[in-house]
Amino acid sequence: MIFNTLSYYLFFLIPSAALYRLAPGRLRPWIIVIFGSGFFLYFAYGMAGFWGAACLLIFLWESLVSRLYRPSSRWCLLGILQSVLLLGIFKYWNFLTGLLFAHDANPMRWQGEFLPLGISFFTFEFYHYAWDRRAGKTEAGTLGEYLAFILFFPTMVAGPIKRFEDFLPKLRARPIGWSQDWERGITRILVGLVKKMSVADLLTAWTNHLNSHDILLADRRILPLWGLAYGIKIYADFSGYSDIAIGSARLFGIRVPENFNWPYGRRNIQRFWQCWHISLTRWLIDYVYIPLGGSRVSSPRIYANIITVMLISGLWHGAGINFIVWGVWHGLLLAGHRFWRQLRGDPSIHPVPVFLSRVLTFVLVNAAWPFFCMDLHSAILFYRRLLIG
Amino acid sequence: MLATFRATLEYLGGERDDVPQFLAGRFGQLARCAVWALAILLIYAFCGQSSKFIYIDF
Q1: Active-site residue numbers of A?
Q2: Distance from CA of B50 to the nearest CA of A (A)
Q3: Do B36 and A187 touch (CB under 8 A)?
Q4: Are A162 and A129 in contact (CB under 8 A)?
């Protein structure tokens, strides 16, 4: 729950943001650290008990190791490796060992599996810092500043994924314009809550039917509506979440990156991804696509890079074959779009093709959601019933 | 016209700071109050059924 609980606002956001604005400069990072730690302990304990809360040690360990990072240093590689390893163990252990053995007969299965709160997101921030320190792109900051960066609770759980070099100047600057920041921030939070409660949660009545049992019993004509409902729900849910995160950060006087820019209705899949989960797309471009060679390699390699990046994006969203299919689907769409652009040159500006391409992009994006929200078996059943009957 | 509509929505939603010209002054303040009132009303109306955010499980 978190952002839609009263305790988030009463115990964490309002007191910490007010204290942050009143405190002298050297204390401000530590206010974030104290409240961020309290936030993590409180909500992680609620979700995964003692061991969930104990994962706060991951942040403390990472912050200590980060003090060893220097440009071209091997410690940075170790930092990258440990962050990926932690994510691999917590998120993918049962999935990967399950590929080796039959699901029920997996002797390596981790029975008490749990996911530390926000691990997929804070891993990317750890990775980014280690990578950029190695490349000499970002300064080290003090221990307090780095802890404030990773424990900044408005963005800790589900982004937007921040960059240290963007965050640091805002942390060091004295927050001004209290009234405007709070008016804009509270407005943003209210809008996010409306998106979540009156759109996303309302659609749950339809999206709850996206399971094998209901798909088998349903009239096939209703299936596209259920799929569409999920497409609208996930947009309202995640953009609502991002609104609350961005609005919460604004109460501190800190602006964090935007995550959405009207993605539905974009005229091609590339534009869609530039406007959907923007902070993730940028992270994947900077830390996966470009290191793979980006667009400076041969044509077949570029297509392979695009599909690889989207496969990683799919796998990052969840440990399951269905997420891989979802990622590859988008990879193929992006590769297909690139091929089409090379073949046909600049896109038409005539209103009819523009409109048709917007509709086609919307349909193709929404057609992939069943693989995102259901296991592979159910998603295939969905399409079998939809197309064959 | 579509751009103005979008800028207005983004301003009223708290996403942008620059006020669209026709919302400057008293009318803009009223519009912002109306957005808050409507938002609080909708949150109050629907808060009983709220569930976990999807991306928290990622």
Answers
A1: 317
A2: 6
A3: yes
A4: no
- Regarding whether A160 and A15 lie in a shared domain, the answer is yes
Comparing CA positions, the residue from A161, A162, A163 lying closest to residue A137 is A163
Closest CA to A168 of A136, A198, A142: A142
A20 and A134, same domain (yes or no): yes
In this prediction, residue A389 carries a pLDDT of 77
- CA atoms of A124 and A34, how far apart (whole Å): 22
Listed residues A133, A152, A170: the one ending a domain: A170
Q: Is residue A387 part of a domain?
A: no
What is the ipTM score, two decimals? 0.93
10 Å Cβ neighbour count for A382? 25
Q: Given CB atoms, is A201 within the 8 Å cutoff of chain B?
A: yes
Residues in chain A with CB shorter than 8 Å from the CB of B42 are 194, 197-198
Interface test with B, best of A193, A230, A239, A243 (most B CBs within 10 A): A193
Tell whether A14 lies on the interface with B, counting CB pairs under 8 A: no
Q: Is A329 inside any structural domain? A: yes
Task: Identify the domain containing residue A82 by its residue range.
Answer: 2-103+115-170
How many residues would you count in chain A? Answer: 389
Tokens read off for A175: 């927050």
- Which candidate from B14, B43, B47 shows the least CB-CB separation from A187? B14
Return the axis-axis angle of helices B26-46 and B2-12, rounded to nearest 10°.
70
Mean pLDDT of successive 10-residue stretches along chain A, which has 389 residues: 88 96 93 96 92 93 94 94 94 89 79 90 95 93 95 94 95 89 95 94 91 90 94 96 96 95 94 96 96 92 96 94 96 96 85 92 96 94 91
Considering the domain architecture, whether residues A86 and A22 belong to the same structural domain is answered as: yes
d(CA A235, CA A240): 8
